[in-house]
Amino acid sequence: MVCLTVDLIAKKQFKKRSGISVKHYLKTLTHLYFSNKNIEEIGDLSICRNLTVLYLYDNQLTNICSLNFASNLTHLYLQNNNITHMDNLSNLQRLSKLYLGGNRIAVVEGLEELHGLRELHLENQKLEQGEQLLFDSRTLLALSESLCVLNINNNNIEDIRELSVLKELQHFSAAKNKLLNITELEAVLELWPQLLTLDLTGNPVCKKQKYRDRLITVCKSLETLDGRDINELTRQFLINWKASKEANRRRTNNQMLARTRVADHTNVGQGTHPGHLYRPANAPGWQPQQPLCSGIQIHQTQRLTLFS
Predict the structure, then answer these.
(1) For the segment 272-290, what is each residue's pLDDT rounded down to a tens digit?
(2) Residues near 15 by Cβ (< 8 Å), separated by ≥ 6?
(3) Which tens digits make up the pLDDT trace of 172-225?
(4) Residues 6+ apart with CB under 8 A from 115
(5) Closest CA to 225 of 181, 188, 191, 189
């Protein structure tokens, strides 16, 4: 078993220089490169308190441990290991970028203290058959004010409505998942006003009618959709087309409502006397009634009588 220790660091990375000791080197170390070294465990590295960037991708790690000392860490690369849980990250409060793609993580959790995290990469988790990547609501809420980049490609995800709280997102990639409902997708995207790039290639929703047009009109700031740039003239045309379509729909609805009111008024007529219900001619007991004379007719009748 290969364990990452200060002795291993000194052996592999330290180059002797005049006047610089190994201890001094470890204390001032900011970048540590140990990718693809068959590392299975992280030992005591507490002397490396100035560490800001740690490369441990393409190893054999099964958990995240022994990093509580790294309060200055800003970039952590742990992709392509065998990590199953997102543990022991709460002390990394300066962490800005976290790479965990290609592991065995089933639940995104344990990031409640990382209020400065801007990028989270979780693509291609090695999940069990029928399993999909899940998100802890507490973690999502904690990241809602900071997270700008989220990559969840190829994780069997069927629904992203719970991600709607991530209102600062600028780059979102969820390619090769199982997203199907375009209406639900539109509702989420409307809550991401700063979104610049969106990648949903390989999802069933991409086959929906007017898929691209609908998303372009919803995402007013979007610059790239599924790897293709969005022309601003095209966006404005689609927005105007949508507005015109909605105006026509409202006008049609208003006309239908007006016709319904007229029909209702006709069916409840005034009859001979105000307040009488209209009775069809073929109704039982119906009898024609003599029309009342108008005021002019009465006046003319009186004149005829006077001069007869």
Answers:
(1) 455 444 455 555 555 555 5
(2) none
(3) 999 999 999 999 999 999 999 999 999 999 999 999 999 999 999 898 899 999
(4) 93, 142, 143, 145, 146
(5) 189
Which residue is it, tokens 């465990």?
41
Structure tokens at 198: 């969106």
CA distance 237 to 150: 30
What is residue 130's three-state secondary structure?
coil
pTM of the model: 0.77
Structure tokens at 287: 């009898």
Residue 232, Cβ density class (10 Å: 0-12 exposed, 13-18 middle, ≥19 buried): exposed
Q: How many CA atoms lie within 13 A of 11 on its CB side?
A: 5
Q: How far apart are CA 234 and CA 226, in angstroms?
A: 16
Domain count, the chain: 2
What is d(CA 13, CA 20) in angstroms, rounded to the nearest whole number? 14
56 close to 36: Cβ distance less than 8 angstroms: no
Q: What is the rounded distance in angstroms from the CA atom of residue 118 to the CA atom of residue 102?
A: 19
CATH code for position 181:
3.80.10.10
Q: Which residues contact 89 (CB under 8 A, 6 or more apart)?
A: 64, 67, 95, 98, 110, 111, 113, 114
224 occurs within a structural domain: yes
Note the pLDDT tens digit of each residue in 101-123: 999 999 999 999 999 999 999 99
Domain extent, residue 204, equals 144-246
d(CA 79, CA 59): 8
Task: Decide if 121 is inside a domain.
Answer: no
Q: Per DSSP, what are the bridge partners of residue 4? A: 42
